């Protein structure tokens, strides 16, 4: 099915029934209502006008419905990607200018093209280099930065910065300018939303409401706050007292827009676009897989890349900004009973109606309210327990997550996540450059060989068997040379060295040369080198090489055979 | 022996006899004569006045004799490091200025400090990330660039560039300005030196000379050419016909000099100094280990770093430039019968006498002659057979060496070697991100399990055993999830999955979370997950984790036990 591979819609479209349609429609109505305040808020976070948030939810959802493989994923603006968008663009153009909005389109186009390319060339594995602890640390730190960046709206002051330090200093400097009325609205809204999450949920559950319905009820919190504060500003004319409001929003379907393809701009956006693509993909795929596992459905990572790529290119040409599959909106979709991507398409239609007809209703919506919804949403992302769990498991994982958190908070999202990935790779290489090499002996009465330091085993003074617990490659080839040399130099009785290769999954060219060196050096000392339990693929590689011809000893299928033959 | 660890001189100094002294003195005389033209030539290559080459051979040799562990290594200017020095400095200051010589001192000081620090903190393993094929490719490409850079001296023209492309274009542009007399001297000298290498050696060996003596005779070639061409220029006044000569060289012991420690300069030199340190260390340690193996002596890599660090710092304060242990000079030392580092100290005294008394003799030495000695020396480094051998072994190794050669030739030494290292690491990570996972079965009548695709084995339809041939870490954790999911989803009869972990040398935090995910998903499908042959260190790590408590199956010491218990 070459076409069905790129168009999953052909698979689920064939079995679409009236019952499915009903479920999808109900889910779409619920999700549309939830998405309106969320979309406006994330546009604000990305530094864009509010309508961009609506536009970014319409075409992308439709395109994902055609190309994506998850049946429940809801694509649109999400918190972390919006923060990364703001961080990337603020370095290049001034916020609030026309150039800023165009650069956002370019960022979405570039990121979409990268995702598409990774999908077509099946390079989704790149995302695997983001380790779990690095992602957790990054999301936690981003949540804190996002919350801090919204405090200015809550207090009605000015503040800038894309890391915690700059933000904190700037907030402190402008603190005396706090607008009392804005702060009252902002703090009340935040407190109410926290209560909805922490107090309302248990209360409803005590009343016997199901988890799904409770989840939906809780998620209407932002809608209630938006309506209440908008009405309050309108009734009491609070905008005249300095409360900043959303104001005029054009009544329009998503416009056709053209990203800038200036080479200078694209060059500057290259790294941010790559990071946004990877982070967005990882966030989206984990949500998709979690939801799919609940219904025994399969997700194809490469096809997901194509779906997200199409969604971002859609955003770029319809006045949006970078999007991805969001956790909270997808869960709402799932809880509301969506069955196919058609639910997403219906949601898009709902949002299009909102963009066309309902924008005058949000004229008086205070920005502080949007900030409150963001703060409450992102604080649920903050989870420092990853530090404790990683510490308990291994120092390397702990170091990677700690560095990611500190660098993201201190120096911003791009440096933070890059450093986290770099550090995990370095630590992994460091570990494999000093592999565990165990001297093993036979467990009496069995054919098993175990570490002489951990088990009661039989050994022979003329024979030493070293089990190398790592693939042999350039970073540890010389370490093995030293190890064998040290073991043999101190023991004059030795006549045979057996390298047990049961854990050697690969031997690269550098390691092959090191094995030749070891063979030559042992030969000069009158010691023979043998190999045992070499794996099939490794043996295939060695077969035609000079090393096998010059090897002084033999190669044995099992370590037990090796010991019997040598005796 | 805490002091003897840092001062190997205390070890060999204790057993120094009169016979050893005689051998060392003879070796020193021979090496001194060889080193004079070589030192002058490499100073020229580095873009420095000729005396810098002599100075760079005196203090460094002495300091290495005190701190180094190799008994035969000769430290001083070498071709590749001199090329890297010229490439690094030309980007920063203009060649021929006072600032250039001072920057060379700073480069040596910085590189020395880095080597010392790596030695003290036992970080020599960093050099292991330079794989054999990358080094071979880099040395080959550097040899070609060096040879090309000397053509201008052979022809008596001007040309610039630090990669093959720039050099070639520049040479072509200036070709019409060729000085006939210079070209005659240069080409004759080159041809003679090639004949000495290719023609004289077999002739002498046919006459029954030993390999050592032949080697020494061949290496006097440059001395002969230097004397002959100097006399020719002096006799016939060829300098008046445009032959460029060495000219006035101060008669002096190495001067005390002070490197610049300007932060801007040091910042610019940071990366080049690091690359020079690593390349110099790798070159030096392989020479040292090759020679030590011939006499069953041990080399301590960390102490070698300290020895080379001290040598470079010595060069920085005595008018030199970056140095390392050279292959050709060390082999001369070895062939001439040097027994201890004292031979090196005596060579240093010989060179000091030369710097003090003999420099007027080289006034008429043509630069074309020095260029000829460089060309012939470095072309022996060029060896494209590495490409063929790597191709024959594995595509990844071939790709790394090809990229290193092409990028070094096309973009220069710094980019070339960095790209080679980066690419080897990426290819290694890519390979380990898609590990070999074999489904295994029991070989009848044994306790051995082998790949069902390669061997005739017994299997049970209710049980599948997957042997994972790689450590589990972030880059392949998700791959394992997909693999297990795909195998189980298509086989309704399955009740047990056993992961045979005999080749799993490490499980990091990301992989632990993936194992938990696999366990949960299998549980939902009514399939139990078991582990077998988990290694000691891995088991230690898992012991206290939540994963073991939630595991639906068991952990077995051997795969054979696992199958018996499950049946």
UniProtKB/TrEMBL annotation, chains A, B:
Q: How does it sit in the membrane?
A: Multi-pass membrane protein
Gene Ontology terms: biological process: transmembrane transport
| Pfam families from the UniProt entry | STAS, Sulfate_transp
Output the InterPro entries linked to this UniProt entry.
Answer: SLC26A/SulP_dom, SLC26A/SulP_fam, STAS_dom, STAS_dom_sf
Q: Enumerate the spans annotated as STAS domain.
A: 453-566
* Cellular component, GO, one term: membrane
Arranged from A to Z, the UniProt key words for this protein are: Membrane, Transmembrane, Transmembrane helix
Q: Which domain of life is it from?
A: Bacteria
**Presence of the UniProt keyword Ion transport in the record:** no
The record's section on Gene3D superfamilies has: STAS domain
Transmembrane segments in this chain: where? 21-46, 99-121, 133-155, 175-196, 208-236, 269-293, 305-323, 343-363, 370-387, 399-427
Q: Where in the cell is it found?
A: Membrane
Keyword RNA-binding assigned to the entry: answer is: no
Enumerate the NCBIfam families for this protein: sulP
Protein name according to UniProt: Sulfate permease, SulP family
Name the species this protein comes from: Yoonia tamlensis
């Amino acid at each position: 099915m070459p076409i069905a591979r790129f168009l999953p819609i052909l698979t689920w479209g064939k079995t679409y029934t009236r019952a499915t349609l009903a479920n999808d429609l109900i889910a779409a109505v619920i999700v549309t209502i939830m998405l309106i305040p969320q979309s406006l808020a994330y546009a604000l976070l990305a530094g864009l006008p509010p309508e961009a948030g609506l536009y970014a939810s319409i075409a992308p959802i439709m395109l994902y419905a055609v190309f994506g493989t998850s049946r429940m994923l809801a694509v649109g603006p999400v918190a972390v990607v919006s923060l990364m968008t703001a961080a990337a663009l603020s370095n290049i153009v001034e916020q609030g200018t026309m150039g800023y909005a165009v650069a956002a389109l370019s960022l979405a186009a570039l990121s979409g093209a990268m995702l598409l390319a990774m999908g077509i060339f099946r390079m989704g594995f790149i995302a695997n280099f983001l380790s779990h602890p690095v992602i957790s640390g990054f999301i936690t730190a981003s949540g804190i930065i996002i919350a801090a960046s919204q405090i200015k709206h809550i207090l009605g002051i000015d503040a800038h910065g894309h890391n915690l330090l700059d933000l904190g200093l700037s907030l402190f400097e402008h603190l005396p300018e706090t607008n009392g009325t804005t702060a009252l609205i902002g703090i009340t809204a935040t407190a109410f939303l926290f209560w909805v999450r922490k107090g309302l949920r248990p209360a409803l559950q005590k009343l016997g409401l199901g988890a799904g319905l409770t989840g939906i009820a809780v998620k209407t919190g932002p809608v209630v706050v938006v309506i209440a504060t908008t009405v309050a500003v309108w009734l009491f004319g609070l905008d005249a007292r300095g409360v900043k409001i959303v104001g005029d929003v054009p009544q329009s379907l998503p416009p056709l827009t053209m990203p800038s393809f200036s080479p200078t701009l694209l060059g500057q956006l290259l790294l941010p676009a790559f990071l946004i693509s990877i982070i967005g993909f990882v966030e989206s795929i984990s949500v998709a897989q979690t939801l799919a596992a609940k219904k025994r459905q399969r997700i194809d990572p490469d096809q997901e890349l194509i779906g997200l790529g199409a969604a971002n290119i859609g955003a770029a040409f319809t006045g949006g900004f970078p999007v991805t599959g969001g956790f909270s909106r997808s869960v709402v979709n799932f809880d509301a009973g969506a069955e196919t991507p058609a639910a997403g398409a219906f949601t898009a239609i709902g949002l299009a109606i909102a963009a066309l007809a309902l924008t005058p209703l949000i004229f008086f919506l205070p920005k502080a309210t949007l900030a409150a919804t963001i703060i409450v949403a992102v604080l649920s992302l903050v989870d420092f327990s990853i530090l404790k769990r990683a510490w308990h498991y291994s120092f390397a994982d702990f170091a990677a997550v700690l560095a990611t958190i500190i660098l993201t908070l201190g120096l911003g999202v791009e440096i933070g996540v890059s450093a986290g990935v770099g550090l995990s790779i370095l630590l992994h290489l460091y570990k494999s450059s000093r592999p565990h090499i165990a001297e093993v002996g036979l467990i009496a009465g069995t054919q098993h060989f175990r570490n002489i330091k951990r088990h009661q085993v039989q050994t022979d003074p003329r024979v030493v068997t070293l089990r190398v617990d790592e693939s042999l490659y350039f970073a540890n080839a010389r370490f093995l040379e030293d190890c064998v040399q040290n073991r043999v130099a101190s023991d004059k009785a030795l006549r045979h060295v057996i390298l047990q290769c049961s854990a050697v999954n690969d031997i690269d060219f550098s390691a092959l040369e090191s094995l030749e060196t070891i063979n030559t050096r042992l030969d000069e000392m009158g010691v023979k080198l043998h190999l045992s339990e070499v794996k099939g693929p490794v043996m295939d590689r060695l077969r035609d090489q000079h090393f096998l011809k010059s090897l002084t000893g033999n190669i044995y299928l099992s370590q037990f055979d090796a010991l019997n033959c040598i005796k």
